[in-house]
């Protein structure tokens, strides 16, 4: 009787450990943990320790299931190692192991190859060495120095409206109104013949600067109700309005249109 009780305790403990191993393997398979989270060697030792006590079919099935799951984890570890090696990836732990097995001579050679000093002393003296050593000993780590930097948020991009053009001195309000009306009259003359004009035929000119400028003013003609744009398949058509509203229409939609800088003549919409 005294031997039977420890036997049952050992069996219960072994079954519990194997079920925990299976749960860990399943979590790794579901990408909840890194494959190297599990020490496969230690897991195999656990299997080896409890294997002599298995008697029932259920115990052997549990043992076999654990072996199968451990094999899958090994496959995941192999895949991760293959990927990391192909990407020349290394971890701090791997670097530490490499450094520990290197000789002092080899460490010195590596240091000299990777050393890129930013200052130079014409004469190396004992006092100079002490001064340099004192500087580096008192220098805070990069993480500590980084905490002291005040990193503000970058300004968000804004639109170049009429007010910004006036403030920058590019044009006055009188010039803007004059150019806008001139282009509206030109659009009216173009659309009087066919009722509409193709957008790119009206906007593009020989130089990139002229093309961008006309596209910019056309956007204001559309915004303030001097004209409207129609889509005809892949083409865009402009129609001049005889009576402009001269105010921003509600529910306006913005359509960004790219203009290649090479010639000012777009190759695609």
Structure, described:
There is one protein chain. This protein has 269 residues and is mainly α. Among the domains are: 83 residues, no CATH class; 79 residues, Arc Repressor Mutant, subunit A, CATH 1.10.10. The chain is built from eleven helices and three strands. Strand 2 and strand 3 form a beta hairpin. The protein is flat.
Which tags fit this structure?
269 residues; Arc Repressor Mutant, subunit A; mainly alpha; 3-stranded antiparallel sheet
Tell me the layout of helices and strands:
Elements: H1 4-29, H2 40-50, H3 57-86, H4 92-101, H5 104-114, H6 126-138, H7 142-147, H8 162-168, H9 173-194, E1 197-198, H10 199-203, H11 208-223, E2 227-232, E3 235-240
Antiparallel strand pairs: 1-3, 2-3
Helix pairs in contact: 1-2, 1-3, 2-3, 9-11
Largest sheet, described in full?
3 strands, antiparallel
Task: Please provide the ordered H/E string of secondary-structure elements.
Answer: HHHHHHHHHEHHEE
Mean pLDDT: 79
DSSP summary: helix tally? 11
Across the major sheet, the strand order is 1-3-2
Structural class: mainly alpha
Helix content: 55-70%
Number of strands: 3
Would you summarize the structure shown here?
The protein is mainly alpha-helical.
